[in-house]
Design goal:
This protein is an alpha+beta fold and 289 residues long. The protein folds into two domains: 7-122, no CATH class; 133-270, Alpha-Beta Plaits, CATH 3.30.70.270. The chain is built from ten helices and four strands; from the N terminus they run H-H-H-H-H-H-E-H-H-E-E-H-E-H. It has a four-stranded antiparallel β-sheet, with helices on both faces.
Length: 289
């Protein structure tokens, strides 16, 4: 995952909501037991906020409210077991606790939603809605690690639009923006949800295709190219690289892709404008499969 995510946070984000709820309920039971055995001499009521906060932050508001209700019930049972003949006081206290717990859940849920929105905006290209370089870098590092550890093909496609500068010069930047959005839409439409599409430059896109070899990636990008040629009379140059378990850094990978893209562009120019659907690039390094 991202570099800014520490170990515990990464662990919690990778768990399911049900798993987090179960862990929170175990914590509630432990806090309730401590609260009961210490009696009125030592209160652990404040510690109930910890499982409530964890459930809300990493599972969602509904799970947070469920944990808050559980905390209220457990604390009420402890009060009734310790104190007898006190009438409605334990129930009143439980209602007050529940009110505080629910307020905490609502506040944390709003903060969680704001954080997720901010995180999404920070990782998304504002013009096309696809991932930006930061998001691509995070996912590429994760997929490269997975490829090295568990094996399986992983391919990267590097795209560069043909004659994009001419479109901007002749038709204006608004038309150029429309072209970029059309390319992003075509990539999202014809590729799998698990494939990550990112815009990393003015008219440059990359696609990360997990569990896909080079031939499969070329076929997928070929469908995108055919769609754009048919609907928009647009074409692009693309190099596809399949990684093996000895891949280097993201910067090295993109540098090699950029070099191969330059060679593909030069080849198109030597063909006097004849379009090439997909530039099939043979690996020149043992790091590229």
């Amino acid at each position: 995952m991202g570099k800014d995510m520490n170990g515990p946070e990464r662990f919690l984000r990778e768990r399911s909501a049900m798993t987090i709820f179960i862990v929170a309920m175990i914590a509630v039971a432990g806090i309730g037991w401590l609260d009961f055995v210490t009696g009125v001499r030592l209160s652990f009521g404040l510690f109930y906020l910890v499982p409530i906060a964890v459930a809300t932050s990493y599972a969602g508001r509904s799970w947070g409210i469920a944990v808050a209700i559980a905390c209220t019930v457990v604390s009420l049972i402890g009060d009734l077991a310790i104190e007898t003949g006190v009438g409605v006081i334990p129930f009143w206290n439980a209602a007050m606790r529940l009110g505080v717990f629910v307020v905490v859940v609502v506040v944390l849920a709003k903060l969680r939603a704001a954080h997720q929105l901010e995180r999404t905006l920070a990782r998304t290209d504002p013009l096309t809605g696809v991932a930006n370089f930061r998001w691509f870098e995070e996912e590429a590092q994760r997929e490269m690690y997975s490829s090295r550890r568990y094996g399986g093909p992983l391919s990267l496609a590097y795209l560069d639009l043909d004659d994009f500068k001419r479109i901007n010069d002749e038709r204006g930047h608004a038309a150029g923006d429309e072209v970029l959005r059309a390319v992003a839409d075509a990539l999202r439409t014809h590729l799998r949800p698990t494939d990550l599409v990112a815009r990393i430059g003015g008219d440059e896109f990359v696609v990360l295709l997990p569990h896909t070899d080079r031939r499969g990636a070329e076929e997928a990008l070929g469908r995108v190219h055919q769609d754009l040629v048919a609907t928009r009379e647009m074409s692009f140059s693309v190099v596809v690289i399949q990684l093996d378990q000895a891949v280097g850094s993201i910067d090295d990978l993109l540098g090699r892709a950029d070099e191969k893209m330059y060679a593909a562009k030069q080849a198109k120019q030597r063909q006097h404008g004849v379009p090439v659907d997909v530039a099939r690039v043979e690996p020149s390094s043992p790091m590229l499969g």
